[in-house]
From TrEMBL:
Signal peptide: none annotated. Specifically catalyzes the decarboxylation of meso-diaminopimelate (meso-DAP) to L-lysine. The gene is lysA. Substrate binds at residues 301, 337, 341, 370, 398. Transmembrane segments: none annotated. This is Diaminopimelate decarboxylase. It catalyses: meso-2,6-diaminopimelate + H(+) = L-lysine + CO2. The modification N6-(pyridoxal phosphate)lysine is found at residue 84. Pathway: Amino-acid biosynthesis; L-lysine biosynthesis via DAP pathway; L-lysine from DL-2,6-diaminopimelate: step 1/1.
Amino acid sequence: MAAPAPVFDSPDPSFADLLAARPALAMDPIAGLMVEEVSLARIADVVGTPTWVYSATTLRRRARSLRDALAEAGLDASIHFATKSNPALAVVNLLHQEGLGADVVSEGELRAARAAGVPASGIVFSGVGKTEREMRLALAEDILQLNIESAEEAEMLSAVAASMGKRARCALRVNPDVDAKTHAKITTGLTENKFGVPIAMAPALYAKMCALPGLDPVGLTVHIGSQIAQGVASYRAAYQRLGQLVRELRAAGHPVLRVDCGGGLGIPYRDETPGTPAALAGAIKAGLGDLGVKIMLEPGRWICGPAGVLLARVIVEKQATTRRFVIVDAAMNDLLRPAMYEAWHGILPVSAAAFHAPLSPADVVGPVCESSDTFTKGRDLPALPPNSLVTFLDAGAYGASMSSTYNARPLAAEVMVEGNRFTVIRDRQSHAALIEGQRLPPADHAGWAT
């Protein structure tokens, strides 16, 4: 059963409001909706739809804004982009050029970060279920840090590192039991969540890690959730608790050189008022600024979410009794967030005429054979006849990275825009590629394993 649509207390932002809050977008009276200086209609003509489109200027501007806020707060900090939010090599490489490292959660992301040019010394490996193979790869690459999420994982990493004759630089992920006030599926800092260890257990486990062969504990890490859009009060509470723990560990004679403050800073998809980089830096400084620790951050969505849009084409408009359906060629296999999280994304027509046309409620849906393949219900939109182009906003994070080939739909192309130029950074998947690697079993069972 499809999840119920969220109920909002305020009217949806107007098209003009959505546009004004997104400096990478502009409406040209002739060319229509632009990303930087490139017409989305032009991209649709050349590359087709659905297509992910990223603004290089936005990625750079946001990375610099966060970096500057940390520096202005007097923090000795490094930023490690959460590649799970957008693992496109071109995106990771651009952010590496801006001085960012990478936060990875799998072998695939580690290999992608290295392929994008991120040095091993800038990579942090997070996640609750690292395999022995992944640990061996991380140690062979000599990455900056592995984040430990449990006593069992500490024992496992110790055995792997000792067998390789190495010492694993690691940090203990602490669960501070702080409510991030975000969606239940993306909160990670409560005792009921699978991540990290309860803060009360941390002193004993950290002491054990310091004694285990092959481990080199260097600090603590925390991540309380994603899309935190209620200011920075939750961060402030978490960092205060973390600061107290640092003092306790040091008093016991244990080294704490680094504190990884995680990510999760939200973006305004609709009319949210999330905290700013300056406010986040202030919360870090208040809780940890007097400890002389190296600060690390793992932002993802805040950097790349506003930098991307999903460009789609209308297949048909369908009137069913009192409901108007706009069926587009993008689907839940492309942008999963509305089906999975009941997430709200702004939708803009690409045509300048449609931008100023009369509006009426419509359900925007995709062609996948699931009732949950619904982007929005009852959204005020202009008439959108077949072949009209629409754009889903703030889709640069957890868009392409969560895509699938459900219903045997090829993965969409990805494009990067800079100034008045654009380039394809990932080809549209072919239908042949969908079945590559598959084979029919021999009818006579010859060659079947026993």
